[in-house]
Amino acid sequence: MEFPEVFIYGSDDREDAAAEELAAQLRAREIEAPFILSSVHGERLASKLQGPRPPERHDPAADQDAAARIGSRAKRSGADAIVAVGGGRCLDVGKLAAARAGLTLIAVPTQLSHDGICSPVAVVPDETGKPQSLGALAPIYVFVSLPTLVTAPVPSLAAGLGDLLANPLALRDWALAAERGLEDVDQRAWDLSVESFELIAPTLDTDPGMSANDPLFYRRLCDALVLSGMAMICSGTSRPASGGEHEISHALDELHGGRAMHGAQVAFGCIVSVALYGEDTEAFRTRLRRLHLPDKPADLGLDENAMVDLLLHAPKTRPGRFTILEDADLDATKARALVRDIWPEL
Ligand SMILES: [Zn+2]
Q1: Number of other CB atoms surrounding residue 182 within 10 Å
Q2: How far, in Å, is the centroid of ligand 1 from the Cα of 166?
Q3: Alpha carbon of 79 to ligand 1 centroid (Å)
Q4: Where do runs of H (alpha helix) occur along 37-185?
Q5: Which ranges in the chain are annotated with CATH 3.40.50.1970?
Q6: Could you give the residue range(s) of every CATH 1.20.1090.10 domain in the chain?
Q7: How far is the CA of 262 from the centre of ligand 1 (A)?
Q8: How far is the CA of 241 from the centre of ligand 1 (A)?
Q9: Among 11, 14, 84, 191, which residue's beta carbon has the most beta carbons within 10 A?
Q10: Domain 5-149, what fold?
């Protein structure tokens, strides 16, 4: 298993200088003909790269077929790598395109909204528009430009923290599956996931709007998201960073086409796991409110019935994965009682 190399550019606040540095770093890695996939926000950062074709603009509606077509265009152009410069979906499309074309991937995230920046997992919609979580290629190199990240919207930072709130719960789910003899825990992956969460733990009681003024915060969040991705590379599954709370986020995608950023949906899903583990949901919800993350169904446009349906659908999104949700084995009556217990105000 090989971990990606991660470079954080933060020596001054000019994005043009970061773009120069990115081009130099690729040359130093003997990447001579990169195929560039860039979102609107990534254009400046990608502007100094020279590929065999002009940079391709990332289409936010790109599905798995589109990713495969990007892969074949890259291959036909004689590219020696795909460089994806953009947000989570752009990187995921790049990962899938690279996997299909047998090319290496360089990830250049323009925001820190989830732990996919260096994971081997790509979430890309199928032909019906339903996002699917697929095994793809982890990047070999991640270039992070702080001058770019500071211009990303604050909700993307909150979502990044939200995705990492899942780690301790995902680990408990993993231990639960191991206890039942269903899976083995990979200790190194476990430790990376713990370390990832510990990095952001001190920032969880601060409004992300305040944290956004602190360059150190970006480094911490970036390191934490990278470690979380490495935990997944290490175990070869998303297990160390994805449990029942991710099943709830997947169910939101499948039943409602997604109602918020991935990390925000995951943070919301954590409330259910916290409740099922018998812990203090009120304290957890207070933390979510402070982080400007959804803490009640209405924040995602859901009522009590939709919430019950969501809980019943969640275990179906990841057949074969045993988490606290599968352990609870909710039927409609139990699901409704749980929803009323967590959100008595509904
Ligand atoms: Zn996630």
Answers
A1: 13
A2: 8
A3: 30
A4: 43-46, 64-76, 88-101, 146-149, 154-179
A5: 5-149
A6: 154-342
A7: 6
A8: 7
A9: 84
A10: Rossmann fold (3.40.50)
List, as ranges, residues with CB under 5 A of the ion ligand 1: 163
Question: Quick count: other Cβ atoms within 10 Å of Cβ 336?
Answer: 16
Q: Rounded to the nearest whole angstrom, what is the distance from the C-alpha of residue 192 to the centroid of ligand 1?
A: 15
Banded model confidence at residue 12, pLDDT cuts 50, 70, 90: low
- At the top level of CATH, which class does the domain 154-342 belong to? mainly alpha
Question: Whose CA is closest to 79, among 120, 108, 58, 49?
Answer: 49
Q: What is the mean pLDDT of the chain?
A: 95
Say how far apart CA 310 and CA 63 lie, in whole Å.
24
**Integer CA distances (angstroms), 229 to 23, 49, 163, 260, in order:** 24, 26, 11, 21
Contact of 110 with 72, CB cutoff 8 Å: no
Average pLDDT over residues 212-238: 93
Token duo for residue 66: 């589109």
The whole-number pLDDT of residue 208 equals: 95
Residue 2 has pLDDT above 80, yes or no: no
Lowest-confidence region among 41-45, 132-136, 260-264: 132-136
Do the beta carbons of residue 245 and residue 169 sit within 8 Å?
Answer: yes
CA of 41 to the centre of ligand 1 (A): 22
Residue 125, beta-bridge partner list: 131
Q: How far is the CA of 226 from the centre of ligand 1 (A)?
A: 12
Q: What is the mean pLDDT of residues 47-54?
A: 93
> What does DSSP assign to residue 129?
S
Nearest to 141, CA basis, from 32, 217, 245, 29: 29
* Confidence class for position 1, pLDDT limits 50, 70, 90: low
